[in-house]
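Risk register update: the risk of archive-format incompatibility is retired. Evidence:
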Amino acid sequence: MKLSLATRMFLGQAVVLVAFGAVAIFSVAELRRSQQEMRLVSQGYLQLSQQIAAIETFHTNQARDTERLAGEQSLETRRALIRLSRLYFPPLMAQRIAEARARTDAIHAMDPGGEAEVIGALETRLEALAQRSNRYTAEAETVFRALEVQSPDGPEVQQQMESLKSLEGSIGREIRSLRALLESRLRQRVQLAQVRERRSGIAIIGLSILSICLGLFATWVSARNLRPVQALIAGATRIARGEYPARLGVKGEDEIATLARAFDAMATSLQEREAELKAQGEALRRAEQLAAIGRLSAQVAHEVRNPLSSINLNVELLDEAVGQADFPDPETAKEARELLAAVTREVDRLTGVTERYLGMSRIPEPELAPEDLHALLGGVLEFVRGELDRDGVEVELSLEAPHSAILADEGQLRQVFLNLLRNAREAMPEGGRLILSTTSGPDHLELRVSDTGVGLHPSTQDELFEPFVTTKRGGTGLGLAVSRQILLAHRGSIRAETRTGGGTTFVVTLPLLSSRGSLPVAS
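Archived output:
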């Protein structure tokens, strides 16, 4: 069963509270038990022992007074002492024994357990002591009546005194035995209380240490469960700095782990969104740049084109006039014609430049139709075959794509391929090898145009498709920029790769034609 983070933390705190509560309850129970022990000893056995000691003292005084009475020769004095003994000793002895018996009843109420046998023995002995005390009182009365009329030296009185003294001895032994029993039990209870107190102290200390350990463990578990929160904070800080690739990687099924996975998903989404916005921004910047260049180019080309037409027409008229004119010698006529031909070539060249700039300013929307890229590429290759052979460029074909059907504007793609092939030829002025290869994926076709030229510098490679960026002397820097725009209009792309050891590869990607005769839906 998987528990939520809040449930786990609550259970941890509950365990700690239960542990400390158990220690508190155990401490209170042991304290109450100790109080009962103290009460049993101090208010029970100790007071009962004091009462038995008082009975013993009282009995000793009574025996001493009886001995004095037996040795008194004066009748009047004996009678006075007898009256005093009758008035004082019997009721006080009965009272003290009754108090001792009442104390045993109180000990019953104080008993925490285990004292019933001892209390029963005390009650039995106190009952026997009370009976012997009553018997002693009766025999003492017999002796008192004899001493009131007879001499203490008489044989009958002597016999009665011996019997009374024997009874006194048995009472004294009973009292001492009772007192010894109490003192022994009192020592035992004190020893048991001390042992129990030590055990209770050790148990309380042990349980307290265990509770503290449980508390520390619960704290560690809580800190461990909350540790991913720091990772979330650090992740948010990294995302705020734009470090999207860093992932939290929190494992588990609790709320924080779920939040961390959502956080990672959000970071991935933000990274993709930012990359998409950056790409859109770059595309917008290029479009604006191309639009501005196009407008400027169109204006400049328009202003230059009309004068060039007039110059071309006038040069043609002048050429006709030179053909009808008379020159002093043939060399002068030849020189004049050569000058006019040079002017005509430069006018044609400038006209071609203006046409390219005008083409940059108004790339039409492609008129898409099903085309075979292999056939289209073969036609362009045949068109430039003469140029390639003249410059010593060897062509190697590796058209391995099983599917090459695309939707394309044939004229615009021919312009792209022609530009790439001529760039490759110009990159190998001393000759080389041109490799054309195709591969296809599930929904796209890839054309690779590789040369064995000098390659591209990394700083140039990043800006290669920007307008007016060129590595050729005398180049306009518009060919690759226009090619990129054409491929974007075909929902394709182009990129450049520089190989180690020299050479450049241009990779053109175009969407394949689906079985229904349309482009695949962009994902």
